[in-house]
Amino acid sequence: MENLVRIFTINENGKEGYAVQSIIIQNGSAPLRIPSPFGSDSMFFDNLDSAVNAVKNAGFDYVLCKTQYEPANSAPEKTNINYGKIIDVFIKNLGNENLEIRTSSINALAKFGTAISEILIATLNENKNWLVQQSVVKCIEKIISKDSSSTPIFLDSLIKISETDNTMLKSSVLKALEKICDNKPE
To answer: b/e per residue, 4-36, with b = 16+ CB within 10 A?
Structure first.
C-alpha cells in the first residue's frame, strides 16, 4: 500500500472518532505528529473530514480500515501483538523481485483472510506495480480457496483488474476467477 495512510474508526465512551496513522517529528521542544503510511503513532480526530484533510495535506492518500484500532503505545503483552505492523511488512514485500520473499508474504497475508480485505483491495487498485498486483491476486486466490463466502468481497476488484494488458497479471487474475467458478453452487 504505497503512500496510503490508514484511518481507523474508534469508539470511546460512546463517542465516535478517527485515528490516523502518523509519525512524530521533533519540532523544537514540542513533538509534531504528521500523517504517514510509515508511522507507528496516531493522531485523533472527531470527524472523518478532518482526518482526511490532514492526510491529504501531508501529501498522502488514505484507506479506511474496519479493523479494531489499538494504540501503538499500549503496554506490550505476550498476547497483544501489533499485527498492523506485521501486515505492513508483508505488503511492502509483495513487489520484491525474490520469489521466495513474495511467496512468504502472500502466504502470510492469506492467513489473515477477509480481515485485511480492505487493505488488499486498496493495494490492488492503487499500486500500479504489476508484480505487487499479481501478488495480491494470488493472495486473494488463496483466501477464496479457503473461504468461498469471501468471493463477493473481491469479485469487482478482480474483474476490474482483469482488463490489464499485462499477460502475467491477467493469467493470475483468470486463475483466481477460475477458483471462484470452482466454488459455485451446483
So the answer is: bbbbbbbeeeeeebbbbbbbeeeeeeeeebbbb
